[in-house]
């Protein structure tokens, strides 16, 4: 495949991401608090998370192990693997979702999303990249890495606060407080967007940007839905708290 053909695939895939963003203004992804009947067969929630995220980890690992890459491309792969090791194997063990289910439709669509995104990023980093070790000295590397690390830490703190709202056997919902929850309903989702913005700055290529577009397309509507859900379910929900951008949105 030529670089031009590859770039065209990325542009088509990014356009589908934008289309999905528009669709998600009308359809709420039915998992977690938004799960409802009518979306076909269901799987145990934790198994669903492992199956959904595994392709993203496995595909990048495949490219990392089987192709020669510059040290800069290898470093990008390691950041990706670090994130997805946590999301695939650690996060599902931590969540307190006893007895909860997830529609197979959601699992299959997330597998498809992860196959394409990881496939495009892995393919680029093993076939088209032209990084050199000098890129480790570029200001964009330091900026992107700082944003990536801050996003990861903030995502971990926010997810931990949410997970610990429940005692091990509880399944209900409570109002989260502390950290960035003082300002917004979904700091975990904002942090994930920040993290992949950092990655896109470091990588500075089309597939990483395309993945960022897809991440925003999924998480921005989800944050708006969560925020509305909190307001509908808790009369005492803090009135000044926004959905995802402090003081604005
Ligand atoms: P949520 O905020 O919906 O849930 C996170 C966990 O906390 C779930 O186990 C949830 O339980 C629990 N929880 C959330 N709010 C409460 C509450 N008020 N009271 C009690 N428990 C609560 O996040 P998602 O499930 O959507 O996403 C999980 C992680 O995956 C996030 O870090 C997100 O950024 C990331 N993600 C990334 C995507 C991407 O495109 N890169 C796509 C989707 C997720 P329950 O499941 O029962 O609601």
TrEMBL record:
Claim: Lipid biosynthesis is one of the keywords in the record: no
InterPro entries linked: 3-oxo-5-alpha-steroid_4-DH (IPR016636), 3-oxo-5_a-steroid_4-DH_C (IPR001104), SRD5A/TECR (IPR039357)
Annotated ranges, domain 3-oxo-5-alpha-steroid 4-dehydrogenase C-terminal: 100-249
Topology of this chain in the membrane: Multi-pass membrane protein
Pfam families: Steroid_dh (PF02544)
Molecular function via GO: 3-oxo-5-alpha-steroid 4-dehydrogenase activity
UniProt entry tagged with the keyword Transcription: no
Key words, A-Z: Membrane, Transmembrane, Transmembrane helix
Compartment list: Membrane
Gene Ontology CC, one term: membrane
One GO process term, biological-process aspect: steroid metabolic process
Membrane-spanning parts: 6-27, 102-124, 139-157
The protein, known as: DUF1295 domain-containing protein
């Amino acid at each position: 495949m030529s670089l031009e053909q590859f770039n065209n695939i990325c542009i088509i895939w990014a356009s589908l991401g934008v289309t999905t963003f528009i669709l998600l203004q009308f359809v709420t992804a039915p998992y977690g608090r938004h799960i409802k009947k009518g979306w076909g067969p269901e799987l145990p929630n934790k198994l669903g998370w492992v199956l959904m995220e595994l392709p993203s980890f496995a595909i990048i690992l495949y490219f990392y192990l089987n192709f020669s890459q510059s040290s800069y491309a290898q470093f990008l792969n390691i950041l990706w693997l670090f994130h997805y090791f946590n999301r695939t194997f650690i996060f599902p063990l931590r969540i307190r979702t006893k007895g909860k289910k997830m529609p197979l439709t959601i699992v299959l669509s997330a597998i498809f999303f992860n196959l394409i995104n990881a496939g495009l990023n892995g393919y680029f980093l093993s076939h088209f990249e032209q990084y050199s070790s000098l890129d480790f000295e570029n200001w964009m590397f330091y900026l992107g890495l700082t944003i990536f690390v801050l996003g990861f830490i903030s995502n971990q703190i926010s997810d931990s606060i949410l997970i610990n709202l429940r005692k091990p056997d509880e399944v209900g919902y409570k109002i989260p407080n502390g950290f960035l929850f003082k300002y917004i309903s979904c700091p975990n989702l904002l942090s994930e967007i920040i993290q992949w913005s950092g990655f896109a700055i470091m990588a500075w290529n089309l597939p990483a940007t395309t993945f960022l577009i897809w991440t925003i397309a999924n998480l921005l509507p989800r944050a708006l839905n969560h925020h509305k859900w909190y307001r509908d379910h808790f009369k005492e929900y803090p009135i000044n708290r926004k959905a995802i951008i402090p003081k604005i949105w």
